[in-house]
Amino acid sequence: MYDHIFVIYRLRSLNHNRCWRAYIAYRTTGSCSNEIHLYSRVALCDYYGKTVFETFVQPTTVVTDYRTGITGITPEDLAGPGSIPFREAQLRVAELIQDKVLTG
How far is CA 82 from CA 77, 78, 79, in A? Predict the structure, then answer.
């Protein structure tokens, strides 16, 4: 996935004295509700670019701009079976990044 190219480059440019298992990269994509930016998608990958976690995040408020032209995200993506509530995504990401060097 194109989003992962940048974060993999960032991971590999870091100090290699640490174990590769200690690194994790993140990438988020957002939508907008008036002036509030919302997380619409989150992805985590490991040092080698393998996706560890990726999901659409259900909005916590009414979305006024999905930024579909930029992100490719549609209302159906955020309401479909491939999306999870914000709190669940937050807890899952927190669990996966615990004790990791985070970059992205």
Answer: 7, 8, 8
Residue range 44-78, pLDDT digits in tens: 998 888 999 999 999 999 999 998 998 899 999 99
CB neighbours of residue 42 within 10 Å:
21
Tokens of 65: 């701009």
Contacts 24+ apart (CB under 8 A), 43-47: 43/1, 43/3, 43/4, 44/93, 44/96, 44/97, 45/4, 45/7, 45/8, 46/20, 46/21, 47/8, 47/11, 47/12, 47/20, 47/21, 47/23
Q: Tell me the whole-structure pTM to 2 decimals.
A: 0.77
